[in-house]
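Before relying on records like the one below, remember that each one covers exactly one chain. Contacts with other chains, cofactors or solvent are not represented anywhere in the record.
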Amino acid sequence: MLNRGTTAEPPTLDPTLGGGTLAAPIIADLFSGLLDRGPDGALVPGSAESWSISEDGRTYRFRLREGLQWSDGRELTADDFVYSYRRLMDPATASRLVGVFYPIRNARAVLSRDKPLEALGVSAPDARTVVFELDERTPYFLELVGNLRVAPVPRHVIEAEGRGWTRPGKMVSNGPYVLTGRVPQSYLRLDKNPRYFDAGAVRLDQVFWHPTQNLATSFSRFRAGELDIVLNFPPAEIDWIRENMPDALHITSNLGVYFLVLNTREPPFDDVRVRRALSLAIDRDAITDRLLRTGVRPAYGFVTPAISEYDGVQIPERELPFAERQAKARELLAAAGYGPGKVLQVNLAYDTNEENRKIMVAIAAMWQAVGVRSAITDVEFRMLNRMVRTRDFGVARWFYVAAFDDPYAMLQLFLSDNPNNWPGWKDPEFDRLMAASNTETDRAERLALLAEAERLLMAAHPVVPISYYVGRRLVGPRVNGWIDSPRGPPLSRYLWLE
């Protein structure tokens, strides 16, 4: 029995809705897509045993393993994958990252209700074959298929149970584990799934996930042996950990960025001068080097340097001394009409977490130094997610972890028609550059197009990057099979205890 810690109660265990959220590691224990992730995070065959790609790069055919079953014993077929992709793109589902799958033929038209779900370019010519047709060549499409947002979901259970289909006793999955118990804010119990196609290689009988928002509590439980793995810990403890339990400490880069999202649909954040001033007034180096001190890097661009072969774009002012950046911020605010006679008021929301609180307090103090007043509000992550999705915010603490190792994975968030364009910023030239990157066959030229798109994004400041994430884990001595990877912590199926 493995005890894993997670930083918050998962908002949902539905793969279509929970991919890319704090629920993702748990969902990864419960479901298997066409492609999966290996121990090191690389793509490996999942429910599909093989696949082929057409010469023009626009048709993908996946061959399912023979004898696949749901955890309730029902046969799992290619039709289940077709249903799952249609459900993902159904506007009624409101999946938070449908924009990632726009390359699929007619995806945009289906999402806008201009075409029926049946027009989506996913089909099942027979029970073991899934075919994707794309609108255009998409060099990273296999990475998309390997993402758990498109794990199959059981139509027969969803239609019978509705939203309650993910409750223990009702939930049916196809991965290495099944959900057998759940106590909110306490634990989720997962038992080994004997019907998983590779059940013989799964060495853990049970996995308990323990949501703990308070990092100090999580750290104390790890020290007491109650948790075998925690995915974060209080930054102030880093020196003690390095001195007293260095073997437990695992710090590695990953594909995520910590940032503020500004609601550009509403004043004052519809003014680029205000957005730029707020960005310039933040001393990212002080936050990462003096406040956190855990290996995170200051972020002056949006795309993390952990993305392979991409140099990225940084705001030009990074090279200026911080005092000069502050002076420039004051000038921009004055030009926008703010000053002692009219103080800029900012509502800053973040999800409850001690580390987040320290960062937000530091940012508020930095803004105050240039004449900006901040009202800081802490809420549960579920509420913050609702606020951002419903556009009911001014400035919000947010994060994003790339679904695949390519700059497009991060930049596509800001396409004009992406429903997850959280700040509401739109730029036709940005859209043009992003589209051109998908048809460019020369790798260097393609990356140059993406860099130009990021340059436009950073000049507009709809988001304020703060730091690039690192994986900051504690792994107990009885856990074996752990491999550090930029793609995230290993799945439970690859671990064992001694």
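The two ends are 11 Å apart (CA to CA).
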